[in-house]
Amino acid sequence: MLRAENLTKRFGSLDVVSNASFAVRAGAVTGFLGPNGAGKTTTLRLFLELIHPTSGSALVDGRPLHEWPAPGRKVGAVLDGHCAHPGRRAIDSVRWAARLAGAGADAEELLGRVGLAEAAGRRTGAFSRGMLQRLALAIALAGDPEIVILDEPMNGLDAEGIAWIKTVLRDLRDEGRTVFIASRLLAELEDLVDDLVVIAQGNVVGSGSAGAFVDRFQPQAVSVLSDQPQALGIAVSRAGGQILDTNGQRVLISGLTSTQLDEIARDAGIALFGVTEESGPRSALSPDLSPAVGPDLSPDLSPDLSPDLSPDLSPDLSPDLSPAVGPDAHPPIADVAGIVGEVC
Ligand SMILES: Nc1ncnc2c1ncn2[C@@H]1O[C@H](COP(=O)(O)OP(=O)(O)OP(=O)(O)O)[C@@H](O)[C@H]1O
């Protein structure tokens, strides 16, 4: 498993990751959710030892990654950043990664797994961003790793590509691997992940069961306008919903989603207008989503969390391509470099 213990990374005077403590369960898919600039990529780079912590530790099965005899067999990663060599053929990039990781992966099979069988012999300079994401995943899997770390792997993929990668990641879990996936979008993760770690402004503000978290931020009530409020009330009660309040034509309902309400009203021949989902409480994480930093959980962060997570953490989808450079950046250690499938 992955474990961050009081992990801090400072760039200049800014704590980009601040005293973060959390664990990623072995054999599960864990989402790493946070808005732009929250510190997700920095945390992933710390686990990969592409940069060093200011204090604390980022451990892979209890040790820093480089202490494992074959780091590339332990962890495979897909990060945004540098290009795969544009002049190299896709199959050669995967073979090279497998060699570096010390694994005898079948590069053709891996490219088939990521849907690039037809493009295996092509140079990657002409690949689309979506194809590069697929290639990066093949490179990350070239070491047959126990743990797969991915930084926003759905960027650049269309709806079909997103559905595809979710299937691949579920398959990786079913093979017994641990998957840790960073994203700004709860919607991208919610039908994929078992657990969530939530980060905001460098602080890990919660971690735990994804189901508990998603339930917490589901709409708590639906407000509708209807010219048949009584008939609507009867239909809602029959369907297991509750009428919280009726004020003239406005009816406030809990226990049903707006989609369910639409169906119920349609079946009962009742017209609905002005359907509005009322969000759940903003102030706290679910009790099941245990504060990962215990008493250090800043009360200032929780109220800010909910709106940021609904449902797109950031309207800005353009990836931050800036690699970790600067005085604090540390060049990849040779053994680890081969495990990172990076994307143009
Ligand atoms: N090498 C660096 N030197 C200085 N600041 C950095 C460096 N790397 C990252 N940062 C800053 O740290 C903050 C967190 O960046 P990081 O990329 O980890 O966030 P993120 O959660 O992955 O965001 P995004 O979703 O936009 O990629 C940002 O303000 C970023 O500008």
From TrEMBL:
Residues 2-226 form the ABC transporter domain. Keywords: ATP-binding, Nucleotide-binding, Transport. Residues 280-330 are annotated as: Disordered. SMART domains: AAA. InterPro entries: AAA+_ATPase, ABC_transporter-like_ATP-bd, P-loop_NTPase. The keyword Cell division does not apply. Coiled coil: none annotated. PROSITE patterns: ABC_TRANSPORTER_2. SUPFAM superfamilies: P-loop containing nucleoside triphosphate hydrolases. The keyword ATP-binding applies. GO terms for molecular function: ATP binding. It comes from the Bacteria. It holds the Pfam family ABC_tran. Residues 295-323 have a biased composition (Low complexity). Belongs to the ABC transporter superfamily. This is ATP-binding cassette domain-containing protein.
